[in-house]
């Protein structure tokens, strides 16, 4: 808790974690006659970092989007602290996408824009945006057009923007999938930092090493089904399912 | 027998001495077209942005109509506005026929489809890229429209310039509703048509050169804007 600027810690509401637990009941998603998410029952109660893993096409990204309310399930419900997902709840969350989505503005304007959407007063936006840039080590790029930053910087900016909103829950969809190791490490540091600030982090990755470094618990999906949800040490030492064993051995998961 | 070289010299002389007749025609043309483009831009941005973001019945048909109207023949637009504004027409009481206002109205009609259709396309492309992120951040539909218009600013400027280019060069519509009345509704294009038929090649040539220069300037501006946009990766 001590390794980040005080101002940001103070800006965080004390109600951290009030959105937890999140409960998914019989969640399914169908599209084009295919069942992409198939009857997922899941409860995540603990703060910290949850990692969603699974082979390509397992439905990891879809599950994240369903939880964030970007798409509606065909069946089933999502409850955040007992309340069905709605726009108000989404405004207490933030999401970072696999491919950075940045507006055609400067880095600092990208963050100020997001703060404006969340109702932060115009006079506060600049300073809060700059603090967020500092946290991500991007302060010298404040006035650079966001889209000419490098890939790693763009993703850090996306994460800085998400964190500037003081979310209670932060979703990330393979945030380091196309980044070099140094950039990935910078992202991971920010996630650990966010965890210490009391933010619930839910991250999709298929980088086993990253999952080992970050995860408190692992949600393993395969063919749209929830195969395992285990505390990280248990999952990595003795996964119960064959699919998870094969996945971690780097084998082909069918 | 007309002497081309002599006509060119006379035309250049008229431009050089800022011939009052020449200036009057240019000023009227610019006043009419700039006013029309300003009005059409406001309407076109709003229509294009709303068409890209909001979902409502008839949205696809409206978008298709706008695209089709980009190729609306100016004389047809002129005829339509003529019928509206003529004494027997529904807006005849306004007594606008053969005034600069009538020319502004017809040019607004001609420019709106260009600006609106290009704006819709620009915003739709951007929305494709931004949709989930803006949804995640909690933007309302109205906020999304303004966001897309701002982020598409470079492409939108080129849409407006395209509209200006069409309106300033157009002759049929302003001829029909303006009437090409000396000192009142004589624009560059209608003056060129008239002076050429009268054999006053010098004035026609001078106006032609001015029009050409304007077209050139617009194209250079377009190139500059495109280059600037790609420099910032804002294209």
- Name the CATH superfamily classification of the largest domain in chain A: P-loop containing nucleotide triphosphate hydrolases
Let me know the average pLDDT of chain B: 95
Oligomer: heterodimer
| Helix content, binned percent of chain A | 25-40%
Q: What's the mean pLDDT score of chain A?
A: 91
Morphology of chain B = flat
Low-confidence stretches of chain B: none
Total DSSP E strands of chain B: 0
Instruction: Give me the side-by-side strand order of the main sheet of chain A.
Output: 6-7-8-3-9-10
Binned, the helix content of chain B reads over 70%
Q: H/E order of the elements of chain A?
A: HEEEHEEHEHHHEHEHEEHH
Main beta sheet of chain B: strand number and arrangement? none
How many DSSP H or I helices of chain A?
A: 10
CATH architecture of the largest domain in chain A: 3-Layer(aba) Sandwich
At the fold tier of CATH, the topology name of chain B is MetI-like fold
Q: What is the structural class of chain B?
A: mainly alpha
In CATH terms, the superfamily of chain B is MetI-like
Largest interface: A-B, 22 and 16 residues
What Rg of chain B do the Cα atoms give?
21 Å
* Tertiary shape of chain A: globular
Structure characterization notes:
The complex is a heterodimer of chains A (254) and B (235). Chain A is 37% helix and 24% strand. Chain A has two domains: 17-92 and 167-254, 3-Layer(aba) Sandwich (Rossmann fold); 104-166, no CATH class. In chain A, α4 packs parallel to α6 (151-164), α5 crosses α6 (151-164) and α6 (151-164) packs parallel to α7. The model of chain A is unreliable at 1-17 (pLDDT under 50). In chain A, 44% of the residues are buried. With 254 residues, chain A is an alpha/beta fold. Chain B has 235 residues and is mainly alpha-helical. Chain B has a single domain (21-192), classed as MetI-like fold, CATH 1.10.3720. Chain B has helices at 4-16, 20-53, 59-69, 74-85, 100-137, 141-151, 153-169, 172-178, 188-198, 201-231. Chain B starts with a helix and ends with a helix. The mean pLDDT of chain B is 95. Chain A binds chain B through residues 65, 68, 70, 87, 90-91, 93-95, 97, 101, 103-105, 113-114, 117-118, 145, 147-148, 165, and chain B through 129-130, 132-133, 135-139, 143, 147, 151, 153, 232-234.
